[in-house]
Write a structure and sequence with these properties.
Distance between the termini: 56 Å
Shape: globular
Largest sheet: 7 strands, parallel
Strand order of the largest sheet: 3-2-1-4-5-6-7
Number of helices: 16
Helix content: 40-55%
Number of strands: 15
């Protein structure tokens, strides 16, 4: 009688989307390299991927055929994700990685969809407390949030950012316009409300008026989906009559490293961060950092840079001036940033990750939580609808809508 060979445990990752050049995307690719070097078969399952990295991914629906109780899914939790719900329902063991969800109140009056998604995402996350074998935050701030939400087994998988995306030949076509002897104050990140771009404008306005009229503010990052917020910030710029504020938008890695090269100071006013990779990117590029001391920012900076605790524009402008006008002080700040970066890079990411994988493999198997009896039927129907929406949009638009209740369709969001 033939015997079946024992299953060799595989360790895969699942997430909603793999982006190009963003912090989570870089971490996902780094995790895969570590797992493959350790001998694990490892794939990245996604709903969607940015075209430049799509070839590195596998459709999340393939998990249905490739799932196995001895496999481990490293699940990067994200809001409103079908891939997340499929991972929940499968028999594989799970390590959940939490990159944080911005509190929904930041998006009120700016992006109604995100208000709903962030609220639902934080509520949905709690359902994974008994589903996952281990829940990891990429900072102590994130780990503590998991613990507060009832996750019994938590840990920290530190972000040890790779800098390959910055170690490229700079594309100076964009940055050359700013390489003219003026003082360049830089921020890198999405143009979204929790980043408090309006505060950056206020701080720059005061610094420019009080200390340095030959200075500019460079705002680098995606603006997609937040046009209303951007309009509010633009209105503030007009009302303050502040020139030399430049919205650069999303840039390539080659353009990003060139912009870091012409920057004199990195300024952040963000009030909610799970880690904030651009801070350590600035450390690596030898740019002094001045940042608001909120959420995970102090632990990420780890004694480097300059933190401020209240948002008085005169106070922050004076800090900026002190850093940029005193070479001895600036050199001391850069030394502290170098030391913080060295501590971060000395963290043995490979050993930490593989230790967590081994911990889950050796642990007693948890009972799988109940899944609704019609879950897979609903999944198939949703999949059919998605195919219809993608390949026959006119037919999708012609589908009957649920009746409106109080001006909205019952059980649906406004619109298709």
């Amino acid at each position: 009688m033939a015997t079946t060979a024992p299953h060799e445990a595989q360790v895969h990752q699942v997430l909603a989307t793999l982006g190009y050049g963003d912090a989570i995307g870089n971490e996902v690719l780094g995790i895969q390299k570590v797992l493959r070097r350790a001998g694990y078969e490892s794939r990245i399952y996604v709903q969607t991927a940015e075209p430049r990295v799509e070839n590195l991914t596998t459709d999340y629906r393939d998990l249905l055929e490739e799932s196995h109780p001895d496999n481990i899914l490293i699940h990067h939790f994200s809001i409103g994700s079908r891939a997340s719900r499929v991972a929940y329902a499968l028999a594989d063991r799970m390590i959940l990685v939490y990159h944080n969800i911005t509190p929904p109140e930041y998006f009120i009056g700016v992006n109604r969809t995100l208000v709903e998604l962030c609220y639902e995402g934080r509520r949905e996350l709690r359902a994974y407390a008994q589903r996952c074998d281990l829940a990891l935050g990429d900072s102590e701030f994130n780990r503590a949030e998991l613990e507060q939400m009832g996750f019994p087994r938590t840990g920290i998988l530190p972000v040890v950012p790779g800098f390959d995306h910055l170690d490229v030949t700079p594309n100076r076509i964009l940055a050359s316009a700013f390489d003219d002897g003026w003082t360049n104050i830089l921020f890198v990140g999405r143009m979204i409300p929790n980043k408090c771009i309006e505060d950056l404008v206020r701080f720059f306005h005061t610094y420019r008026l009080r200390y340095n009229s030959t200075s500019r503010l460079l705002l680098v990052g995606s603006q997609s989906g937040f046009e209303d917020y951007l309009a509010l910030v633009s209105d503030l710029i007009v009302r303050l009559n502040t020139p030399d504020v430049h919205f650069i938008g999303h840039v390539s890695n080659e353009e990003l490293t060139a912009l870091y090269d012409v920057a004199d100071l990195f300024l952040s006013a963000s009030e909610h961060e799970g880690f904030c990779v651009p801070l350590v990117e600035a450390f690596r590029k030898q740019i002094p950092v001045v940042a608001f001391a909120a959420t995970a920012v102090p632990s990420t900076m780890d004694g480097g840079g300059v933190l401020y605790n209240y948002k008085d524009a005169r106070h922050v402008a004076a800090l900026i001036h002190a850093v940029l006008s005193d070479q001895v002080l600036e050199a001391e700040i850069l030394r502290a940033q170098d030391a913080a970066l060295d501590r971060l890079l000395r963290a043995n990411f490979d050993q930490t990750l593989l230790g967590f994988v081994d911990q889950v493999r050796r642990a007693r198997r948890l009972p799988h939580p109940d899944v609704a009896r019609d879950f897979w039927d609903q999944f198939e129907r949703a999949d059919e609808l998605e195919e219809l929406r993608e390949y026959r949009p006119s037919a999708y638009q012609a589908l009957p809508k649920k009746p409106r209740i109080g001006g909205q369709r019952s059980g649906t969001k406004e619109g298709p």
